[in-house]
Specification:
4-stranded antiparallel sheet, alpha+beta, single chain
Length: 102
Amino acid sequence: MEPEFALWTGVHASDRRMFILNNKQGLHTRPAALLSRTLQFFNCRVQAQCGEAVANGASLMGLLTLAAGYGSKITFTATGPESVRALDAVEKLFDDNFRDAY
């Protein structure tokens, strides 16, 4: 019996956007949780980078390890079929200053 392999042949471009964190308390647990929950619904992989630290955007613990304080620049890179939609959702969170987290 031969093993079955699923081949992914789709090619998806990456989308990258940078945001400045205007939340006075930084990216603490509540906004990080909202961000990770939001990104879990999209069919793509999202990485967040702040300085030299890089994390999975859908991971609460990963986002917290970025130690992003007020005024930090966070770059999000998304790859996959829904990368544009995912980063649009991230942009909305930053535009609303993570209001729904409170």
